[in-house]
């Protein structure tokens, strides 16, 4: 029988609704190389590399009557040109035009009858640049062989050192025949006889049990206790928790990693603490710009997924597949009512130290050393941790993933920037993702189109919040 989806992976299919499509995305900006970079080159590159991610040529097949969890089957009609698409911006090709296009593309659900991913080459950006947008369903990033299609098309070699791909024939792929309904039913019955507990497991997944989902992602009784304690305290009331629509808005912000490092060194904290303090400062100014009541005790509760792993779990020969789903989710009250940037930073630092004292956080250097590491993978795992949780527990999700501090290339085109697109959970009007890469820190703000018409205002306040903190460094 073909491989069956895990209970957690299946839950993302069962929980998906029109207003909460369960795909994670990323937008990468590329510099056009002298040799050119076009749609044909991207399709050729994907064809060469897709054998490294066999799941991307498979689709989900449901078992009749839901007798068991769905299975992954080869798509005998797989067409790479369907999944790799082309778009272009009208002149002048501004950031605003790009983010509007990204918002519209990520609002569309993936076709459930095909492999659950899409990639768009967006041409016509200012300065001769291009962008690549990827969309991958969270069921694909299974936490065991966690890897993203946007990861395998990137190279660390300079363009002159890359072997040409044009004209090279892709590896011959022979899909396995798709099982019939009778075969799927017989397989489900055989498993039920061999593993009686599977029936209960399937029922729990089909019901979309949020506690089971969080438990599998967060891991461990200590984490469940932490979540239960957070659930006992209702999240603060903010304009971020509303019934959301099917459409999105997207905004970006660019900052310099060196600024975060300076603040970290001066105040004895982590870069992640500085990031959360910047987010808190930007949210404070945004709430004030809306005329929302902000008092000294006002907070916004963030769910912060962090990759955790003991040192023994990071072998020198680690691969992307060994990254696993070691993502722990922390609840942090961001002190948006505090006017002092230094006091905000100290509050966040204290809260994060309490959380991480019982967990093994993975440092940025360790993540970069893991072979095949790519930020979209961990952003996807972080989004999985948030998707099944109630809006009663937290107000928004903030994922921060350190990326490589050296340039990456796709078919000879140098990647200049990378912006995560974190999906919205039910009742969540905003999700913030950020990635550090090659000296920069890049924010992606994914917001509900109706509830967040001013998401670009929030993105623009990031620079001001960071400048406040940098101004405290002597």
UniProtKB/TrEMBL annotation:
<dbReference type="InterPro" id="IPR023213">
    <property type="entry name" value="CAT-like_dom_sf"/>
</dbReference>
<keyword id="KW-0012">Acyltransferase</keyword>
<feature type="domain" description="O-acyltransferase WSD1 C-terminal">
    <location>
        <begin position="324"/>
        <end position="469"/>
    </location>
</feature>
<keyword id="KW-0444">Lipid biosynthesis</keyword>
<comment type="similarity">
    <text>Belongs to the long-chain O-acyltransferase family.</text>
</comment>
<dbReference type="InterPro" id="IPR014292">
    <property type="entry name" value="Acyl_transf_WS/DGAT"/>
</dbReference>
<dbReference type="GO" id="GO:0051701">
    <property type="term" value="P:biological process involved in interaction with host"/>
</dbReference>
<dbReference type="Pfam" id="PF06974">
    <property type="entry name" value="WS_DGAT_C"/>
</dbReference>
<dbReference type="Pfam" id="PF03007">
    <property type="entry name" value="WS_DGAT_cat"/>
</dbReference>
<protein>
    <recommendedName>
        <fullName>Diacylglycerol O-acyltransferase</fullName>
        <ecNumber>2.3.1.20</ecNumber>
    </recommendedName>
</protein>
<dbReference type="GO" id="GO:0019432">
    <property type="term" value="P:triglyceride biosynthetic process"/>
</dbReference>
<dbReference type="GO" id="GO:0004144">
    <property type="term" value="F:diacylglycerol O-acyltransferase activity"/>
</dbReference>
<dbReference type="GO" id="GO:0001666">
    <property type="term" value="P:response to hypoxia"/>
</dbReference>
<dbReference type="InterPro" id="IPR009721">
    <property type="entry name" value="O-acyltransferase_WSD1_C"/>
</dbReference>
<dbReference type="InterPro" id="IPR004255">
    <property type="entry name" value="O-acyltransferase_WSD1_N"/>
</dbReference>
<dbReference type="GO" id="GO:0005886">
    <property type="term" value="C:plasma membrane"/>
</dbReference>
<keyword id="KW-0808">Transferase</keyword>
<comment type="pathway">
    <text>Lipid metabolism.</text>
</comment>
<feature type="domain" description="O-acyltransferase WSD1-like N-terminal">
    <location>
        <begin position="5"/>
        <end position="275"/>
    </location>
</feature>
<comment type="pathway">
    <text>Glycerolipid metabolism; triacylglycerol biosynthesis.</text>
</comment>
<dbReference type="InterPro" id="IPR045034">
    <property type="entry name" value="O-acyltransferase_WSD1-like"/>
</dbReference>
<dbReference type="GO" id="GO:0006071">
    <property type="term" value="P:glycerol metabolic process"/>
</dbReference>
<keyword id="KW-0319">Glycerol metabolism</keyword>
<keyword id="KW-0443">Lipid metabolism</keyword>
<dbReference type="GO" id="GO:0071731">
    <property type="term" value="P:response to nitric oxide"/>
</dbReference>
């Amino acid at each position: 029988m073909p491989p069956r989806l895990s209970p957690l992976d299946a839950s993302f299919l069962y929980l998906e609704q029109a207003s909460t499509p369960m795909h994670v995305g990323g937008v990468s900006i590329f510099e056009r190389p002298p040799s050119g970079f076009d749609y044909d080159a991207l399709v050729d590159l994907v064809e060469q590399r897709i054998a490294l991610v066999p799941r991307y040529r498979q689709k989900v097949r449901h078992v009749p009557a839901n007798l068991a969890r769905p299975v992954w089957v080869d798509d005998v009609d797989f067409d790479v040109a369907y999944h790799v698409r082309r778009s272009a911006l009208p002149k002048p090709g501004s950031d605003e035009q790009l983010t509007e296009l990204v918002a519209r593309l990520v609002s569309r659900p993936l076709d459930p009858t095909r492999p659950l991913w899409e990639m768009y080459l967006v041409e016509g950006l200012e300065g001769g640049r291009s962008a690549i947008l990827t969309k991958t369903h969270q069921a694909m990033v299974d936490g065991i062989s966690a890897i993203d299609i946007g990861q395998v098309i990137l190279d660390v070699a300079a363009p002159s050192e890359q072997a040409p791909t044009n004209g090279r024939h892709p590896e011959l792929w022979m899909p396995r025949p798709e099982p019939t309904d009778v075969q799927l039913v017989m397989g489900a019955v055989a498993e039920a006889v061999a593993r009686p507990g599977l029936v209960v497991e399937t029922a729990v997944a089909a019901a979309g049990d949020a506690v089971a989902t969080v438990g599998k992602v967060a891991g461990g009784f200590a984490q469940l206790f932490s979540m239960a304690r957070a659930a006992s305290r209702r999240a603060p009331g903010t304009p971020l928790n509303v019934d959301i629509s099917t459409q999105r808005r997207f905004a970006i912000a660019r900052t310099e990693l060196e600024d975060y490092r300076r603040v970290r060194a001066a105040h004895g904290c982590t870069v992640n603490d500085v990031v959360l303090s910047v987010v808190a400062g930007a949210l404070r100014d945004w709430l004030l710009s809306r005329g929302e009541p902000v008092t000294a005790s006002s907070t916004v509760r963030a769910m912060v997924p962090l990759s955790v792993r003991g040192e023994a779990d990071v072998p020198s020969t680690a691969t992307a597949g060994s990254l696993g789903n070691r993502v722990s989710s922390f609840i942090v009250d961001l002190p948006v009512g505090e006017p002092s940037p230094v006091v905000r930073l100290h509050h966040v630092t204290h809260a994060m130290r309490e959380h991480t004292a019982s967990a093994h956080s993975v440092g940025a250097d360790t993540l970069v050393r893991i072979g095949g590491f790519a930020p979209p993978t961990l952003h996807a795992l972080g989004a999985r941790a948030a998707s099944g949780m109630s809006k009663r527990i937290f107000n928004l999700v903030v994922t921060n993933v350190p990326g490589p501090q050296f340039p990456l290339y796709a078919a000879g085109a140098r990647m200049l920037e990378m912006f995560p697109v974190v999906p919205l959970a039910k009742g969540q009007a905003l999700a913030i993702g950020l990635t550090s890469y090659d000296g920069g820190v890049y924010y992606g703000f994914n917001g509900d189109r109706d509830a967040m018409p001013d998401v670009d205002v929030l993105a623009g306040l990031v620079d001001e919040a960071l400048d406040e903190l940098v101004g405290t460094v002597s």
